[in-house]
Design brief:
It is a single chain. The protein is of the alpha/beta class and about 450 residues long. It has 16 helices and 16 strands. The strands form four sheets. Strands 8-5-3-2-1-11 form a six-stranded parallel beta sheet, with helices on both faces. It has a five-stranded mixed β-barrel with strand order 12-13-14-16-15. Strands 4-6-7 form a three-stranded mixed beta sheet. A hairpin with a 2-residue loop joins β15 and β16. α4 runs parallel beside α5 and α13 packs parallel to α15. About 35% of the residues are buried.
Length: about 450
């Protein structure tokens, strides 16, 4: 007590006590008046989930009131979507998903994320839904345009029944998942299941009327006004949002997220793989160039990293590789074009089916596939072929060219003497006597001395 009394009487002690009393209140106060905005644009993939995860962590570190996900997406990968939803469900601060601006959509995976958010909001002129799981490999019974399970046809058999069963499992799993999210947030679970089973969609105003979303807001300021005083359930407890007068802070993707976005683009990953293969091929065919090998190795590692987090169809990857091997073999084996044509066909088909989720934007562009197929065919059939032909041509310079070369003796000699080969004078040795002017032929080269013999006849 005497020590505290002494601090009170000291000028520095008063300042210290004042700081200790106000510091716990001041640190969160700066964060309570801020809102972190994250932009989710385009197809949802590994880069998106990484960006959202890091963004929510940053918002927690800044003591933000809430996180707003501004969304405009056609859907994306199931694995990336579930990672984002898990981050939302365990977030210690509320997460608001806001489909904006006008004309934006939260289709497929975006609908699940909207349902998982603490508050679901949309701008006028936006829509959500069409949440049926889709695979590029075929159309299931519950996908619009697909065959129903009661449809009969001449091609329906055990294979079709197996595909239908697998599709029903996927749809049932997705329906149960989105219904659980709807029940967790108290939203319309029946319509959520309809969006999965029948690919139903809704505009913003109808979604609000049916209890699918919580708020329709024209812009961010309008959204913050309508969120003021709203209660949300956060990790089992109720929290009242205080959004009046808050500052909006947008967190942009950092270099890591941007790099991940670039290399996980299917077209970029596809090109990196081909650069890697061609670069290593050049390096192995011409050791010592170094640059093709370095560029090829780096590109191939980046492509393999992208492939291990993208939905790669390994049958497509194997078919693509087989196509490249066939086109390469065409340059070495005379197959009258069979290997080359088969290689191009395998390359194109493998590229088309390389990724499993073409509907979500994860597919290689068809014009890019065709262009690279033609370039690859031209490369292997012409460039590699020309290199092999050049390799088979006779040597016209260097030590190897001197072997069997013709010339004439400049002196009379039986052991060693001088000869002229290609206009150059060389020291030569011979086992048979030579006279000046005799035609000679080189048998061996030992340093700067040629071993020669008389040329008695043309060969």
């Amino acid at each position: 007590m005497d020590y505290i009394a002494g601090l009170r009487n000291s000028r520095y002690g008063k300042l210290l006590l004042l700081f200790l009393c106000l510091a716990p209140l001041w640190v969160p106060a700066a964060g309570e008046r801020s809102v972190v905005a994250l932009d989710m644009r385009g197809a949802i993939g590994p880069a998106t989930s990484d960006y959202i995860h890091r963004g929510i962590d940053a918002a927690v570190g800044r003591h933000a009131v809430l996180v707003i996900l501004r969304m405009d997406t056609p859907g994306g990968l199931d694995s990336a979507m579930r990672d984002i939803i898990q981050d939302i469900l365990v977030s210690p601060i509320p997460v608001v998903s806001y489909v904006s601006p006008g004309g934006a959509r939260a289709a497929s995976a975006g609908t699940y994320i909207l349902y998982a958010s603490h508050v679901a909001a949309m701008a006028p002129g936006t829509n959500l839904g069409a949440a049926t799981p889709v695979e590029i490999g075929g159309i299931g019974p519950d996908v619009p345009g697909g065959r129903g399970k009661d449809d009969e046809g001449p091609g329906k058999g055990k294979g079709a029944d197996s595909q239908d069963a697998m599709k029903r499992k996927q749809v049932n799993d997705a329906a149960a998942y989105i219904r659980s999210l709807a029940n967790l947030r108290g939203r319309n679970a029946d319509w959520a299941e309809l969006a999965v089973r029948e690919a139903a969609s809704l505009p913003a105003n109808e979604a609000l009327e049916k209890g699918v979303i919580d708020v329709v807001a024209t812009d961010m300021d309008d959204l913050l006004q309508k969120l003021q005083g709203r209660s949300v359930t956060l990790l089992g407890s109720t929290r009242v949002l205080e959004t009046a007068g808050v500052q909006i802070e947008t967190i942009e993707p950092d270099w890591r997220s941007r790099l991940l976005t670039v290399i996980t683009d299917p077209n970029v990953a596809y090109i990196l793989m081909l650069i890697g293969i061609y670069g290593l091929f050049f390096e192995f065919a011409n050791p010592g160039y170094i640059l093709p090998g370095v560029a090829g190795a780096i590109s191939l590692v980046l492509a393999l990293y992208a492939f291990q987090i993208l939905p790669v169809n390994y049958a497509g990857l194997a078919l693509l590789s087989l196509g490249l091997i066939f086109m390469l073999a065409e340059a070495f084996v005379p197959s009258f074009g069979a290997l080359g044509i088969g290689g191009v066909i395998g390359f194109v088909i493998g590229s088309v089916i390389l990724f499993d989720h073409g509907e979500a934007g994860y597919a290689v562009s068809l014009p890019l596939i065709l262009a690279l197929a033609l370039l690859s065919a031209g490369f292997f059939l012409f460039i590699v072929g020309a290199a092999i032909k050049a390799r088979r041509r006779p040597v016209v310079s260097g030590r190897e060219e001197l072997l069997r070369a013709r010339g004439e003796a400049l002196d009379d000699f039986a052991g060693s003497g001088r000869v002229r080969i290609h206009g150059e004078v060389w020291q030569a040795v011979t086992k048979l006597p030579l006279k000046r002017g005799d035609r000679v032929r080189v048998l061996a080269v030992e340093g700067l001395v040629l071993s020669v013999e008389p040329e008695t006849e043309e060969k």
